[in-house]
């Protein structure tokens, strides 16, 4: 049986307006309260999947070794880090066989390398990315250039890359699906534990408020596709009762989605992380 642990690479902040696209602040501020600089708190929630044969990391957070200026700009809080949480689970980074980032923005793939030394942090892992994503990261459009940074992309050139096109099973029970939307090469990840289907939809549904298909980020390069792919996936997730793991929700990252009486999607967070049967050995609870 596949076991899964929810692990965190800390928190950071992004501009609340940019995170909610065309949604007016009067609406989004109720769900995601901004600070004095209009930034909202975001989690960096990753998954460690143990198939019994391989250990797989889904996403890597923002990483380590940032400059002071960068850390301040994004209010990076490293009270929790991926490496500390893996150590608490007694997992050596060298044991990770695959890393699957949804895309290569710094808050998803930044943890692949130490930014100050360029050292790869999961040296034996194959990094699974869509072909379009790798090409976009190497030659970023100016709209995206602030998210694709050489500090972790240069070291990645030396990593063992598993470049995929479209949908692919990575190992039995773990598969990726190419969605585009947020970036042209954005992919989502599914884990079938034998008990539940875990849907990790990356930046299509970053926080609980984003289960509303129209709440899409201003960062998205294909906003219409973001909305249509999100609609398709959430609809299926409601009927098949998927367990959603939300990459950036700082408080309630695991839950289901249901339809209310007005045909709106509502997020139903898990009561507590200890109540989730598939979640094993999580080192620290998320408050
Ligand atoms: Zn993100």
Structure overview:
It is a single chain. By secondary structure, the protein is of the alpha/beta class. The chain has a single domain (2-286), classed as 4-Layer Sandwich (Metallo-beta-lactamase, Chain A). It has helices at 16-20, 25-31, 68-73, 82-88, 106-109, 131-138, 150-156, 223-239, and strands spanning 3-15, 39-50, 55-58, 96-100, 126-130, 160-164, 168-171, 174-178, 187-192, 197-200, 243-245, 254-259, 265-269. The protein has a seven-stranded mixed beta sheet. Strands 1-2-3-4-5-6 form a six-stranded mixed beta sheet. It is globular, with a radius of gyration of 17 Å. The relative contact order is 0.17. Bound molecules: zinc ion. Residues 105, 107-108, 203, 206, 248 line the site of zinc ion.
Tags for this model:
single chain; 287 residues; alpha/beta; Metallo-beta-lactamase, Chain A; seven-stranded mixed beta sheet; six-stranded mixed beta sheet; 27% strand; globular; binds zinc ion
Write a compact overview of the structure shown:
This protein is of the alpha/beta class and about 290 residues long. Helix content is about 20%, strand content about 25%.
């Amino acid at each position: 049986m596949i076991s899964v642990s929810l692990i965190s690479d800390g928190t950071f902040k992004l501009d609340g307006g940019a995170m909610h696209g065309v949604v007016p602040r009067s609406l989004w501020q109720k769900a995601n309260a901004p600070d004095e600089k209009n930034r909202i708190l975001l989690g960096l929630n990753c998954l460690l999947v143990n198939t019994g044969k391989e250990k797989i990391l889904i996403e890597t957070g923002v990483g380590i070794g940032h400059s002071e200026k960068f850390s301040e700009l994004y209010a990076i809080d490293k009270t929790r880090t991926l490496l500390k949480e893996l150590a608490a689970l007694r997992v050596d980074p060298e044991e990770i066989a695959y890393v699957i980032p949804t895309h290569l923005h710094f808050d998803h793939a930044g943890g692949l390398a130490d930014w100050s030394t360029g050292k790869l942090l999961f040296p034996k892992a194959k990094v699974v990315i869509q072909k379009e994503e790798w090409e976009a990261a190497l030659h970023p459009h100016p709209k995206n250039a602030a998210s694709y940074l050489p500090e972790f992309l240069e070291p990645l050139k030396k990593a063992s890359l598993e470049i995929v096109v479209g949908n692919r099973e990575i190992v039995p029970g773990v598969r990726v699906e190419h969605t585009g939307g947020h970036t042209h090469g954005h992919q989502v990840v599914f884990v079938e534990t034998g008990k539940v289907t875990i849907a990790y939809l990356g930046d299509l549904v970053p926080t609980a408020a984003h289960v509303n298909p129209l709440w899409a980020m201003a960062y998205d390069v294909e906003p219409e596709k973001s909305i249509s792919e999100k609609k398709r996936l959430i609809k299926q997730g409601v009927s098949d009762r998927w367990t959603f793991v939300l990459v950036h929700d700082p408080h309630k990252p695991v839950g289901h989605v249901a339809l209310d009486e007005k045909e709106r999607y509502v997020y139903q967070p898990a009561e507590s992380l200890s109540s989730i049967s598939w979640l094993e050995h999580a080192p620290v609870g998320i408050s």
